[in-house]
Amino acid sequence: MRSSAKWSFHKTLNARNSATPRVINADKHKAYPPAVAALQEDKTLPQFTELRQNKYLNNVIEQDHRFLQRLIKPGFGFKSFNTARRTIKGYEAMHMLRKGQVVGVLKGDVLAQLNFMAQLLEVAA
Q: Is the domain of 9 the same as that of 32?
């Protein structure tokens, strides 16, 4: 039987934009150590990957979501789930682009960012 922690880690590690982590920061939930050990055992996760369980280390990650939450809250009047999903994905893509997290597009290169978004949205630049 798979734990939800193991499933979540497995899904994240197999994402296209995911790199092999050196360290995993998590809260102190008891399910994380066995999940990481199981993933290391079946070679999904390298042995050198460290699990750091600290209640406050996750705050940095959560702070990154503040920007998106500020944009999303006024838009709670979405007419459908699909509209909300597409809009929030767009917010996240723009935020990743602005932070320089898109491979091949530098953080300050506005022209490359514009071309990337035009290609992504299939519009003429």
A: yes
Query: CA end-to-end span of the chain, whole Å?
Result: 50
Q: Looking at the structure, do residues 47 and 69 belong to the same domain, yes or no?
A: no
Residues 78 and 116 in one domain: yes
pLDDT band at 91 (very low <50, low <70, confident <90, very high): confident
Three-state secondary structure call for residue 73: helix
Whether 70 and 77 have beta carbons less than 8 Å apart is answered as: no
Backbone torsion region of residue 106, taken as left when φ is above 0, otherwise alpha when ψ lies between -120 and 50, otherwise beta: beta
By residue range, what is the domain housing residue 32?
4-57
- pTM of the model as a whole: 0.48
116 half-sphere exposure, CB direction, 13 A CA radius: 19
Tokens of residue 84, six digits: 């909300």
